Amino acid sequence: MADLKKIAVCMPDTLLKEIDDMVCHKCINRSEFIRDAMRFYISEIKRSNAVEKLRNGYLEMSEINVTLAEIGLTADYETIIRYETRLAECE
């Protein structure tokens, strides 16, 4: 394990009691529990950030896709108009 640094953390008695109950139940010490909790919290923040980036990317792509679809439909419409105009000229 990497070099460990000692820190002091202030918390309400009720939270410390909950931690102590969990520590007793899991048969680990407070330090292990708090390290695990911090790792979990950090990974959740990273996951949440990744989900937000994906969501923003999908929203941006949806706007691009709508624009491309509109361009394609306009081009198709113009092609149909030219085709029908040519057909009418042949009659």
Detailed description of the structure:
- Helix content is about 80%, strand content about 0%.
- It is an all-alpha fold.
- The protein has one domain (about 15-90).
- The chain has helices spanning about 15-25, 30-90.
- The protein starts with 12 loop residues before the first helix and ends with a helix.
Compile the SSE list and pairings.
Elements: H1 13-26, H2 30-90
List the keywords.
single chain; 91 residues; mainly alpha; rod-shaped
Rg, nearest Å:
31 Å
Termini separation: 87 Å
**Helix share, percent:** over 70%
Q: Give the beta-strand count.
A: 0
Unreliable segments (pLDDT under 50, ≥5 consecutive)? Answer: none
The share of residues in extended strands comes to under 5%
Number of domains: 1
Secondary-structure element series: HH
In round numbers, the mean pLDDT is 91
Brief summary:
The chain has 91 residues and is mainly α.
